[in-house]
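HUMAN:
Just now I want nothing more than another pair of eyes on a protein record. I would be glad if you read both lines and explained how they fit together. I have put the entry right below:
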Amino acid sequence: MVTVLAVVALAAAGCGDSDDDADGSSSTSSSNATEVGNEQFTPIVGAVEFAPVPFEGSDGKVHLVYELSVTNFTSGSTKIEGLKILDEGSGRAVGELTGDALNSRVQPAGSRDGTDVLAAGEAATIFLHVTLDKDATVPDKLIHEVSVNAEAAPPGQNRITERLGEVDVDDRTLPVLSAPLRGERYIAADGCCDAVRHTRAILPVDGQTYVAQRYAIDYEQADDQFKIFTGDPKDPKNYEIFGKEVYAVADGTVVGTKNDLPEQEPGTFPSGISLQDADGNYVVLDIGNGFYVNYAHMQPGSVKPKVGDKVTKGDVIGLVGNTGNSVAPHLHLHVMNGPSPLASQGLPAVYDKFAVTAQVASTADFDASEGTGIPLKLVPGLTPSDHEDEMILDQNLVTFTD
């Protein structure tokens, strides 16, 4: 009751009037004006906490991947009816979400389920992905136009369009990585840009939230029959990638390692894994200019460098295993802005050269192959292609050479 009265008082104190819609609500548009008397009631408040960094993907497009944090700051439910991502300079829309596409990207705090309605006081993250043509101008600044219908709003202002979350695009120079593995048919599982397991893995650590795995890839490998494993799925040795050498992707200094965690039995995620042991046996490599590379889940005893060691691009640093929070042998790799694999923000990086030889049809098809041993279902008719200085995208099947 106190909050509702405060909202009504706010309406009486000078919020702009507008014509009512037939249903008693109204459609108004908020501005960023700061002049006295131009203030606008905005049920949803929000900000971009880590700026998007543009990069070119293996699809030949430029991508921006980031999150808009929002809170319903009213005493009633508020429905988010639409969202546009605008180039602040030109005013043109570079992205738009409505309906199911929007619902699936709004994730309330502490939940993995999508929604387009926020309860009173509820916070959420909206996961955003902008795709631009390769020759398109990348915006210098983005702003978000959100259409909402707020239950607890001043009279005549239930339905409004507001702007929030202005952010400068971070056009930093990205590191160019060499191959972390050698050979054919490596699957870039759960990679950028819309695979939810990594891109939406928000971690509350040390009093704030991080998305260290924003651009992470889980590399697995298929044999010449496109099977991830043959034989007993509980034996890690039966997986094609198990024991493969892992290489330094750039010159750097080792700033973190672990080497003594045991192999896990494939097939199910282990129970009782601590946050600190989730990456299993790992190496964190400082490659300079604020970029760090995390390699995870390597075999016990295989991690070669120690903290403080200098490594050279192409050095063997360990062997692929199944340690830590892992359901099958694989190499997890992500780039971040700090030495902690958890309390850092994920950053994009590109690979100097690789070939895309096929594309797994979907994450569900990958999961079926990983879980049962059936051959991967591939997108038909894909022409193999060579790539340079691009990010490997989700479910690409790639070949790495020296």
